[in-house]
Amino acid sequence: MNSMRHLVLGAARSGKTRFALNMAKSLARANESEVIYVATAEAHDAEMHERIARHRAERPTTWRTLAAPRDLATSLARIEKASAIVVDCLTLWLSNALLRDFNEDQPTAPLPTWSRERDAFISWLSNCPHTLILVSNEVGGGIVPASALARRFQSEQGWLNQDVASVCDQVTLVVAGLPMTLKAPTSR
């Protein structure tokens, strides 16, 4: 199986995860390969526990799940076997790292944890040997947030999506469950 890096973007409840899961199912059937689902969420409240349970129920029980709420590049680098990998999602991974260093009194101060994690991930992604489907939120289409934390998050998410899209072979935006190709793979 050839490697492929595919970024799937969309707003909350746009159908982006469903699209990514269906793509991984098709790849697994076509290539008779294992799918590894990389979960970046952490359940800190009842709502998140429920969302995680719902996502778990949506994917096949034969898929292996790898929890990677932090140090995503390190977790992905440990995967040796060429397989289809779904990372769901970059947005929660960003949130986990951002909250470690963000200071409301200095909203534009450097974020060393996030900078280290983002740089390591982009470096790994640039040389990724696997078929990879990345899910991420598109958060820049709304109003400018009122809080400093939300503004910083929106900025960091936008920059991350740009960096990831530049490295990926394919980028799809999902709106109302409908996929739109933003970047198609070029023939090699």
Question: In summary, what is this structure?
Answer:
The chain has six helices and seven strands, in the order βαβαβαβααβαββ.
* Overall 3D shape: globular
Share of helical residues: 40-55%
CATH class annotation: Alpha Beta
| Annotation field: number of helices | 6
The chain-level mean pLDDT equals: 93
Sheet with most strands:
7 strands, mixed
The SS-based structural class is: alpha/beta
SSE string, helix = H, strand = E?
Answer: EHEHEHEHHEHEE
Q: Which range does the strand content fall in? A: 15-25%
Radius of gyration: 16 Å
Topology-level CATH name? Rossmann fold
The count of DSSP E runs of length 2 or more, i.e. the number of strands, is 7
Q: How far is the first residue's CA from the last residue's CA? A: 14 Å
Instruction: Identify the strand order in the major beta sheet.
Output: 3-2-4-5-1-6-7
In CATH, the homologous superfamily goes by the name P-loop containing nucleotide triphosphate hydrolases
Structural write-up:
The protein has a single domain (4-183), classed as 3-Layer(aba) Sandwich (Rossmann fold). It has 6 helices and 7 strands. It has helices at 16-31, 46-58, 72-77, 90-101, 112-126, 148-167; strands spanning 4-10, 35-39, 64-67, 84-88, 131-137, 170-175, 178-183. Strands 3-2-4-5-1-6-7 form a 7-stranded mixed beta sheet, with helices on both faces. The chain starts with a strand and ends in a 5-residue tail after the last strand. The mean pLDDT is 93.
